[in-house]
Specification:
alpha+beta; disordered N terminus; about 425 residues; kinase; Phosphorylase Kinase, domain 1; Prot_kinase_dom; eleven-stranded mixed beta sheet; PIM_Ser/Thr_kinase
């Protein structure tokens, strides 16, 4: 196996057959340019035969080394050794994370198995190489006679292995760097299984955060806007996501981004027109129950309507209990009357998402034109928020005045002459 040794621009050269190169981040992948031969090698994001090995890099970094570190790119039976200093290689690592598949090392320690099903395992881990805590989602292989090949994307060049569609979707969404999807720090392959790691360190459950924003009239319109951005991203990629519900939604309180923290069961509508994977009773669109009707990304729109209703009123429109939802959902019996007690623009927006006929249901890009996101409405909500805060401050001052027992303090110190 040939092993050309490439090197970042720095003063010291490797003794091996190395050369100075330029590495560039491009919209289609990592680009390596040899200034002497003018050769350009582009490692495309979509090429699943590319495998990167960062294990040695992190070992050397944790040992205190800062120069002449390296990582490896394996491609078509060739290994490219990329050398550089810590700062440069870390920049390349961040660019590659979630877009390329990395070779899994042995630095991870399992802390707890959180959930396990027939097709995946979720556990909390400590990654000693990165010195961070993560969640690891392991995709369990389903190689049997009844394997649904639609769960897998293209065949790679490396021993004819199949890449799970979940991995392909993560790569696709990370290429465009969309903040409404949880960031994956690494896509892994250990020779048998695929997995990925992520952190929820800066995230809070949306339902918990909403309870702190009950007096904020702007928060629901902000939440709706963030979810529309998420819908547009899924629509542009042609992705249907059955897990688009409240239990998978978080918020970053610093950036105020709403974040979907799950890629499980997401699939491309183009290659999976007849798939029926919706697992959550109370969220599936009405077309799910019509076998002869194909599912499209408009199914995502309906699910956002359900979760906004649930967030606003505290229960699912198909019922307050699991028993009620199981009974009402297949019959499509949902009660939207209580929406009329809320802001008319917000109520109208949610009902628009819940239009029964998917043909009449709006496309995600059309939703941005709704009055809920107009400048005049935002100004009106901001004024309401200021007035509410003003009245709250006045009320707190009145209460303080009534309960205050501050007494005048008289001087008690006596001086001797």
């Amino acid at each position: 196996m040939s092993q050309p040794c490439l090197k970042m621009n720095q003063s010291m050269k490797s003794k091996l057959n190395s050369k100075f190169i330029s590495i560039q981040e491009s919209s289609v992948g990592l680009k390596i340019v040899d200034p002497d031969s003018r050769m350009i090698q582009v490692f495309l994001f979509w090429n699943n035969s590319i495998l990167m090995d960062w294990n040695c890099f992190f070992e050397e970094l944790n040992a205190g080394l800062e120069k002449n570190l390296s990582f490896i790119i394996e491609y078509e039976e060739t290994k490219y050794f990329i050398y550089g200093n810590a700062e440069d290689l870390l920049c390349i690592y961040k660019f590659c994370a979630g877009k390329y598949i990395f070779k899994k090392g042995i630095s991870q320690k399992t802390l707890e198995i959180i959930k396990e099903k027939h097709d995946y395992q979720l556990k909390s881990i400590y990654d000693q190489s990165r010195q961070k805590f993560y969640y690891e989602h392991i995709i369990l292989p389903q190689m049997n006679d009844n394997l649904d090949m639609s769960f897998y994307s293209e065949v790679t060049y490396d021993r004819e292995k199949f890449v799970p569609e979940e991995i392909q979707i993560i790569k696709d969404l990370h290429i465009t760097s969309i903040p409404q999807f949880i960031h994956v720090d690494a896509l892994y392959h250990d020779g048998v299984q695929y997995s990925y790691i992520y952190s929820k360190k800066d995230l809070i459950k949306l339902t918990l955060y909403y309870n702190t924003q009950l007096d904020n009239p702007c928060f629901m319109s902000h939440t709706a806007y963030q979810l529309v951005l998420l819908l547009i991203a899924l629509d542009e990629k042609g992705i249907i996501h059955p897990g688009l519900d409240l239990k998978n939604l978080y918020i970053n309180p610093n950036s105020q981004d709403i974040v979907l923290a799950s890629y499980y069961q997401a699939y491309y509508q183009l290659n999976n027109e007849d798939r029926r994977l919706y697992a959550n009773i109370g969220y599936s669109p009405p077309e799910y129950f019509k076998i002869n009707q194909k599912l499209t990304t408009k199914a995502n729109v309906y699910q956002v309507g359900i979760l906004l209703f649930h967030l606003l009123l505290g229960y699912n429109p198909f019922g307050k209990t699991q028993k009620e939802m199981v009974s009402n959902h297949p019959k499509n019996e949902l009660n939207l009357k209580r929406l009329n007690t809320f802001d008319s623009n917000l109520s109208d927006f949610i009902q628009l998402l819940l239009v029964q006929d998917p043909i009449k249901r709006p496309q995600p890009s059309q939703l941005l034109k709704h009055k809920l996101f107009s400048i005049s409405y935002k100004e009106h909500q901001s004024k309401l928020s200021i007035l509410q805060q003003y009245h709250q401050d006045i009320q707190e001052f009145i209460i303080f005045n009534k309960t205050s027992n501050i007494q005048n303090v008289k001087p008690t110190i006596k001086f001797k002459k």
